[in-house]
Amino acid sequence: MKSILCLLIAAGFGALLQFEGVPHGLLLGSILVTALAATKFSFSPRTPYGLGYIQVTLGIATGLMFEAWDSATVSTMLPSLGLLLLCLTVQVALSAWWLARGAGWNRTDALLAVYPGALAAVFDLLESHQASSKVIIVHLMRLLLITVLVSLLIPGQAAVAVAEVDPLSTGMALTVFSLIVSSIVVGRLLLAIGVPAPFMLTAIILTAVFLKSGWLHGFHMPDWSLNLAALILGVRIGSRFQGLGLAELGRHGRTALVSVGLMILVAAGFAEVAARLLGSDALSLWLAYMPGAIETIAIVAFGGGLNVVFILTHHLVRMVVLHFAPALLVQVRRAREEV
Fold first, then answer.
1. pLDDT tens column, 37-56
2. pLDDT tens, 97-126?
């Protein structure tokens, strides 16, 4: 009951901010309300299937945009992905170096703090008892700063999200239902082997397949589904403030801001260079090179009318590389030792 009440208050305040013209007010308002409840009353609403819902919803909405995929986007994608990997290396190295040298952290904490993984992986880290409070604060600050920064800098366009949607026919409803179930089932299999953001990945791919097969012709994601995803995401971010005192936030907050700020500035620098070299939109590139928070980036990109497919493709590649690179390095090291 308390969780439902908190969700309703967060939705009401977020809707008020949205009505008053605050960019992405629903997302920011739900973060603020939940953060206050978590710090003042030590309570955070439960959303056990929230992250899965967010990923499936945004994955389907992204997959539907593959209908507009063209050769120009494909030709721009490959060199930009190469710059993404270089940007990621510089981001992690520079931020970890500053934490180790400038803030005096040990190398393990510094590397854990700058890991720009998927939102689910970050939440797992935040809930882990092995993560120190300062590492948790850096990740929390990264989620919060990226969310607030991109939400305020990129104006929402209600016309993009709101569309006239005809009532679903029985056949279309069954098709969408089968798409959702397939995304969940395949996503669970990928989750079992440790694939990051599995439900979003499967939803994007399966939606694109359904779309190219002609099974989703004329289907659009309803506005309420994206708004609900924004609300749940804001609640999940705000609830992470529970258990963190003001003293801890003050002690490590400045260090976290500098660390995250360096990564965001590196992303901006690479985006500017890539925009000049590739002739692409610098804003879309900046969002594509952001260090994490794919779900937040997706919601903001949808609301801002940006090239969501281009942006999310970069984030999915980043997450796959981050997830599988350590495992590959271990295997290579073991092979060398055996030789």
1. 887 787 878 888 888 898 89
2. 999 988 888 887 887 788 776 555 566 555
> How far, in Å, CA of 99 to CA of 221, rounded?
42
Q: Name every residue whose Cβ is closer than 8 Å to that of residue 110 and which is 6 or more positions away in sequence.
A: 96, 99, 100
Categorize the per-residue pLDDT at 279 as very low, low, confident or very high, splitting at 50, 70 and 90: confident
How far apart are the C-alpha atoms of 64 and 61, rounded to whole Å?
5
CB 115 within 8 A of CB 135: no
CA separation for the pair 15, 29 (Å, rounded): 8
Measured CA distances, 301 to 64, 111, 122, 294 (Å): 14, 29, 21, 10
Domain ranges of the chain: 57-165+220-338
Computed over every residue of the chain, the mean pLDDT equals 80
67, HSE (Cβ side, Cα atoms, 13 Å): 15
- In SS3 terms, 152-189 reads as HHCCCCHHHHCCCCCCCCHHHHHHHHHHHHHHHHHHHH
